[in-house]
Design goal:
Elements lengths: L1 H18 L2 E4 L2 E4 L29 E4 L10 E6 L15 H17 L4 E7 L15 H4 L12 H11 L3 E6 L3 E3 L11 H4 L4 E3 L5 E3 L4 H17 L4 E4 L18 H9 L6 H23 L4 E4 L18 H4 L4 H7 L4 E2 L14 H10 L6 E2 L2 E2 L9 H16 L4 E4 L3 H4 L2 H8 L24 E7 L2 E7 L8 E8 L2 E8 L4 E5 L1 E2 L2 E11 L9 E5 L1
Parallel strand pairs: 4-5, 4-15, 5-6, 6-10, 10-11, 11-12, 12-13, 14-15
Antiparallel strand pairs: 1-2, 3-23, 7-9, 8-9, 16-17, 17-20, 18-19, 18-22, 21-22, 22-23
């Protein structure tokens, strides 16, 4: 019985080995050829053979070394004021949807007319158009100091996101010393005029003002600035021209700072009262500049002082003296480089007798010893001239002649654009015909931005360009270059644009090559990748 079983097993094993078409060696499977069989492929007619070979895509691009044109650069900003509901929101009783719709309309207008920056007032008078644990919600937002929007949202966060989507910088504009505005409703228990009453004074026109000499004032405003810089993805912090208040705010009477002045004198202080006041502001400006960059080096600090430092500077200039009235030594801040950009409010016509636009801008330029950005403020909304659009256009062109490659301007205010169609068309068809990047800030150190990767593929009568970067978080915009018949064209694109169908033929010209660069939030460009289009 055992022998029969053994023979059967051996017989089955032989059959199995004869029927096998593979042999197993070293745990690997290898095919074996049977000499008694013919190659099946050779016996099949050629026209019936199907070969599954990869179908190579014909390359349509070739990496190139090229010389690209310089990208157009100019700072083009607009102030958007919230105080007294000047610009946004237009009323303090709007619904959230109405507030957002107004904001979107303004931002779309700026993008469509080739602006590149928004200067948005988020702290008009020791209040907040953003979520803050330091100061109350603004009366100008909700109609009551301290009352939050309903349903709750963060206006500043909304403005940042919507601005950046459109390739616009967002600068937060703060008034450092105003504690309550006469148009800001009643002073209630949540108002800083009450909560910090020990460092606030009431002026004769009804406004409340922080005492700039009080260390507690400087500490509080410093904390407000650092809080915004830390928590929000902003591009700059901006102060306007209100330091010590204009004399008219107190009906010509001296600023009521007897307590802090007496403390200074009693401690052995030797400065005159005017120099002491200026020194208070000087130290504050330097502090804010350094603290912003210590927190986020790429966040710029800008100030827009009154356009005249002192009468007689330059010769022939007449008018108010910010040095003597506001105790603002703005020339010193520029000389010391305590700002990244400086926008003196040159709100007079070019042919003004005592406040000539050209003379003032040239003088400020001569004082710009640290080569910071000098971008004048223009009175787009109410400059005293019969033809405002052409006056503003001429001021932009004159600024370009004076400032050369670091040109720029800020428009007061966005109402001069939204409420004057002729102004918009004059700018869009003239100096703002093409988009522009903001000028670089070479004194602000930044890591080099990575070169993007570019792919070109066939898409019918178009070449489809696709690009990306390993570090998208460092990219703010793209610059796309297209070469037709040897001539380059440039196009500035928003961050979310990662592809483009480019016509191979346009106006009788043939597309030769495409290139791409990444741009960071300081306007620095990456190296390029360029490819030939076949």
């Amino acid at each position: 019985m055992k022998m029969r079983n053994l023979k059967l097993v051996l017989f089955l094993g032989v059959l199995a080995s004869c029927g096998s078409t593979h042999t197993v060696q070293n745990n690997t499977v290898k095919p074996t050829r049977n000499p008694n069989t013919t190659n099946p492929v050779k016996n099949i007619p050629k026209d019936l053979v199907v070969v599954n070979k990869p179908n190579p895509v014909k390359p349509v691009d070739e990496v190139l070394k090229v010389i690209l044109p310089a990208v157009n650069r100019e700072f083009r900003g607009a102030w958007i004021a919230s105080v007294a509901n000047i610009n946004w929101p237009s009323r303090n009783d709007l619904s959230i949807d109405q507030q957002k719709a107004e904001a979107i309309s303004m931002l779309d207008m700026l993008k469509d007319n080739n602006f590149n920056a928004v200067i948005f007032q988020v702290r008009p008078s020791a209040d907040a158009l953003y979520t803050s644990s330091l100061e109350p919600w603004s009366y100008f937002l909700t109609g009551e100091t301290g009352r939050s929007p309903y349903p709750n949202y963060d206006p500043l966060q909304f403005w940042i996101e919507e601005s950046h989507k459109r390739g616009l910088e967002l600068h937060v504009w703060l008034n450092p010393y105003r504690a309550h505005h006469t148009n800001g409703g009643s002073v209630n228990s949540l108002s800083m005029a009450n909560k910090l009453s020990d460092i606030v004074v009431r002026l004769k026109n009804g406004m409340y003002w922080f005492d700039p000499a009080n260390p507690k004032t400087q500490g509080h405003v410093s904390n407000v600035v650092k809080d915004i810089v830390t928590r929000y993805d902003i591009d700059a912090v901006h102060f306007d021209d209100y330091f010590y208040p204009y004399a008219t705010y107190n009906k010509g009477a001296d600023f009521p700072d007897n307590a802090t002045w007496s403390a200074y004198v009693n401690s052995g202080g030797t400065l005159s009262r005017a120099d002491w006041r200026r020194d208070n502001v000087n130290k504050f400006v330097e502090r804010i500049y350094k603290e912003i960059h210590a927190e986020k080096s790429y966040v710029k600090f800008g100030i827009s002082p009154f356009g005249i430092w002192k009468p007689g500077y330059p010769e022939g200039i007449t008018g108010s003296s910010q040095y003597d009235e506001l105790y603002a030594d703005a020339k010193l801040w520029l000389n010391k480089g305590w700002v990244d950009y400086f926008s003196p409010q040159l709100y007079w016509p070019i042919d003004s007798k005592g406040q000539g636009f050209e003379a003032l801008l040239n003088w400020w330029k001569s004082e710009n010893t640290m080569n910071r950005h000098l971008w004048p403020g223009l009175n787009t909304v109410e400059i005293r001239t019969p033809d405002r659009p052409n006056e503003i256009k001429n001021q932009i062109e004159l600024s370009r002649q004076i400032l050369k490659s670091d040109a720029g301007e800020v428009h007061w205010s966005i109402a001069g654009l939204t409420k004057n169609p002729m102004m918009l068309s004059t700018l869009k068809n003239g100096p703002y015909k093409e988009k522009a990047l903001v000028p670089k800030s070479p004194w602000i150190k930044a890591l080099p931005i990575l070169t993007p990767t570019l792919f070109i593929t066939e898409n019918g009568s178009f070449a489809q360009a696709n690009w990306s970067s390993k570090n998208l978080k460092d990219v703010f915009q793209w610059v796309l270059f297209k070469q037709y018949n040897g001539v380059w064209e440039t196009e500035i694109l928003t961050l979310d644009t990662l592809s483009k169908d480019i016509p191979k033929y346009k106006d009788g010209k043939t597309l030769n090559a495409v290139a791409i660069k990444a741009v960071d939030r300081l306007g620095n460009e990456s190296d390029y990748m360029a490819k030939k289009v076949k």
